[in-house]
Amino acid sequence: MPAGVDRTAGARRAAALLADHPRVLHAQVDVEAGDAGRGRLVARLTPRPVSTGGAERVAHLQSMYELLYSKTDAPADPAFDVLGWVSSYDGAQMDPAALHEWVDLTVASVLASRPARVIELGCGTGLLMSRIAPHCERYWATDFSVAALRRARRAVPEVAVARRVRLLQRHADDLTGLPGDVDGVVINSVVQYFPDLDYLRRVLSGAVHAVRPGGTVWVGDVRSLPLHEVFHASVVTATSPDAEPAARAAAVLRRLAFDQELVIDPAFFTGLVEELPGVAGVEVRPKPAVHRNELSMFRYDVLLHVGERAAVVDVPWEDADAYATPGALRDRLATDRPDILAVTGIPDALVAPAVSDWEAIRRGTPTRPWCTGPAPEDATAHRLTRLADGLPYRLRLGLTAGRTDGAFDAVWVRQPGPVLWSIAVPTGPARGPLSNRMPPGPPSSDELAAYLRPWLAPDLIPNAFIWQVAPG
């Protein structure tokens, strides 16, 4: 086939990809005369208007949840009111067993430090409140939805517990009148609905100021930016298993372009130690779940430790490739009994099938059906939490910086040892934006080239990007 035909087909492919970019309204790529008779590719683009109204987005969500939670059907168990928890893979209610696990893991993380006075921002129907408040002296729960708060009240029917709970209708960034010396603030499965990182910073700043030194801000269920493409590829594979590779690739791009939730790089949170006064240390944790679903695979939890900055403890890190199986890690702990064993880049078997899906889509090859769960000797966060059972070690799990495959780090510290969150973790390469929320204005040529690079050969990426004003 003549080279010119290939170039023309490549231009059409580039134009189709650029048209799927969330900040591009219209795209045209032309082959123009170039040096040595080889045509240059020139992209002419019309920008898509970008809304910057965070207040409008919050108001829209508030109206939506008022309608959702105003439904009259009461759940059989008011303490397990999971209205609205729908799977992205089939549109059905999420598996109750998986949701129970998700709730139990979050509650266990909060109660591990035995907080007596807790504020929860965005309590929803009271899934966490109903389980944490009975262990507390006082519990303040806020939500912007009056209908949600009515359902939350039913989640704590015991009079003794209800007397400890105060329900308040307000937005997450409004802590007016709340105490400034609580043991912890819980913000769980909420930040994905925030309009942008500036709003999140404002909420976190208020939360940190409300917590006494030595307390914790728990930020749960954060959608992972490094796994953003992998998540959408997994949904495309589940919903369109027989689609052609090119169609699956286009579907992933469309889903990325129109994802309205806030998706965040863990580097945003680790940077708060330097950025936000009162943050002593940060932990970014994978979810140690058994069930494989979008909550356990593509979301993570964050703990902001409040107080004076702790002295950083530097430790030698070993690569996960040195250990064939998790069993080899346990043998090292049991036999050598090191004071600290720090291992980085442990592949997460829970996420691995979805990562393979994404890689296959990028290559244009068929995907394989997922297995129902990881093999017994595969590494998952859940398996590693049990690895040192019976041995005198404490474990800190974290996400490996700079990785896009869900890999994590593990540090076993022989008791008593240093504070786990004071241990320095490896830093990865800079990934660029810290969230998927696009800033106003058109993207740069470098951004557009990077956007096209996974899908096009280098010589098919346009040589020039020209922005044009939309007609009218």
Describe, in plain words, how this protein is organized in 3D.
It is a single chain. With 472 residues, the protein is α/β, with parallel strands linked by helices. The protein has a domain at 3-50 and 438-467: ANL, C-terminal domain (GMP Synthetase, Chain A, domain 3, 2-Layer Sandwich). Helices cover 33% and strands 21% of the residues. A seven-stranded mixed β-sheet has the order 5-4-3-6-7-9-8. A four-stranded mixed β-sheet has the order 10-11-13-12. The radius of gyration is 24 Å and the shape is globular.
Order of helices and strands: HEEHHEHEHHEEHEHHHHEHEEHEHHEEHE
- Please write the CATH class name of the domain at 3-50 and 438-467: Alpha Beta
Strand content: 15-25%
* Share of helical residues: 25-40%
Broad shape: globular
Task: Describe the strand arrangement of the main beta sheet, using strand numbers.
Answer: 5-4-3-6-7-9-8
**CATH architecture of the domain at 3-50 and 438-467, please?**
2-Layer Sandwich
Q: What is the tally of helical segments?
A: 16
Find the CATH topology of the domain at 3-50 and 438-467.
Answer: GMP Synthetase, Chain A, domain 3
Uncertain spans, ≥5 residues at pLDDT below 50?
Answer: none
What is the assigned CATH homologous superfamily of the domain at 3-50 and 438-467?
ANL, C-terminal domain
Q: What profile does the largest beta sheet have?
A: 7 strands, mixed
* Rg, Cα atoms, Å: 24 Å
Number of strands: 14
How far apart are the termini? Answer: 41 Å
By helix and strand content, what is the structural category? alpha/beta
User: What is the overall pLDDT average?
Assistant: 89
